[in-house]
Task: inverse folding
């Protein structure tokens, strides 16, 4: 049987299409340039933008003490993760601990850098501290985690687990790389839990970005560093590769953060994502794991590759589950991205196909 050309997109983790373009247009139209703005930029990014990002993170990401002087603006969160990984691993053993189901983009970054991902077992609260300690005993010194609305499983670590991870990292002298693009959405449902970078600032890189709130095309992200040495390493990399990064979009996004318009957009976005998650559970079934304001859902399935093939045959594209796990492992489910289909009726139709294909 020849698979249909995909008709429905449940693969790409995009925010639902609201009025982000209009929001940015309004701020872009009032932006004014000075001659100094056309000089080579600060390798850490414009200070005013970093200050605004730090203030925003204190409200929506559990980072009340985010230091703009320890921050670098980046070309999106994925770029920030690559910089963090390079600085964290350095000249040591070329490996990094990761959750046993994790963001496929990070696996690609590590693979491209010749760094081996060592999978660590998870439970319903996220990475298991005992499994992390056991894996670290074999020589790996860096750990990548997503504590909030984990991709792909949607798990959010409770405070107790975050503290256990931090305590184990301190005992073993591990460096933490915290991927955090979903806390702003999660903050609309509950008071933000403390970020790992707040609980252990001396050993945590915190990588984030605006792509899951406004859209990935902006390529605006940030990286908080644990110390001056790590910050200098990132600055040297950006100086070598880019002579600094463009300042325009970080400054436009910063204005949206400071005047409250981004918060209003975030509130509307959270309403939309919550409605989509509730719709998905009603159609697909109660075993579908959704997490309030998250952009994706997790469907447990013992034979995820089989289900993916059946869906593709019926015109529904989902993210290849094998990319979330180590090569040769069978994934424990499939991720359903709930934002890429802009029309809610099309999303419902795609979800009905998923429900019937199980």
Result:
């Amino acid at each position: 049987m020849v698979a249909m050309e995909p008709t429905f997109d449940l693969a790409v983790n995009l925010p639902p299409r609201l009025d982000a373009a209009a929001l940015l247009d309004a701020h872009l139209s009032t932006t004014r340039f000075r001659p100094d703005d056309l000089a080579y930029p600060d390798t850490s990014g414009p200070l005013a933008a970093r200050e605004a990002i730090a203030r925003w993170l204190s409200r929506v990401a559990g980072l009340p003490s985010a230091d703009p002087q320890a921050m670098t603006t980046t070309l999106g969160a994925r770029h920030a993760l690559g910089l963090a990984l390079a600085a964290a691993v350095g000249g040591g053993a070329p490996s990094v601990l990761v959750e046993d189901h994790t963001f496929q983009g990070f696996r690609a970054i590590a693979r491209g850098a010749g760094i081996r991902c060592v999978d660590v077992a998870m439970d319903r609260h996220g990475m298991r501290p005992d499994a992390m300690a056991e894996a670290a005993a074999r020589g790996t010194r860096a750990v990548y985690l997503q504590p909030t609305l984990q991709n792909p499983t949607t798990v959010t670590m409770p405070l107790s687990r975050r503290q256990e991870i931090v305590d184990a990292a301190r005992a073993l002298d591990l460096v933490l790389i915290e991927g955090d693009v979903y806390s702003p959405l999660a903050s609309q449902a509950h008071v933000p839990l403390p970020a790992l970078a707040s609980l252990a600032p001396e050993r945590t890189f915190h990588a984030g970005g605006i792509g899951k709130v406004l859209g990935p095309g902006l390529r605006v992200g940030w990286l908080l560093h644990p110390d001056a040495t790590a910050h200098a390493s990132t600055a040297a990399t950006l100086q070598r590769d880019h002579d600094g990064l463009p300042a325009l979009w970080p400054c436009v996004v910063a204005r949206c953060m400071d005047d409250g318009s981004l918060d209003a957009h975030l509130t509307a976005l959270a309403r939309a994502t919550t409605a989509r998650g509730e719709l998905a559970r009603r159609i697909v079934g109660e075993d579908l794991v959704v997490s309030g304001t998250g952009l994706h859902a997790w469907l447990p399935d013992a034979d995820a590759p089989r289900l993916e093939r059946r869906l593709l045959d019926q015109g529904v594209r989902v993210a290849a589950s094998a990319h979330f796990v180590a090569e040769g492992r069978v994934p424990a489910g499939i991720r359903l991205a709930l934002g890429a289909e802009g029309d809610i009726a099309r999303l419902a139709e795609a979800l009905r196909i998923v429900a019937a294909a199980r």
Notes: The chain has a mean pLDDT of 93. Residues 281 and 307 are 18 Å apart (CA to CA). The chain has 13 helices and 13 strands. The domain at 8-19+269-357 is CATH 3.90.1150.10 (Aspartate Aminotransferase, domain 1).
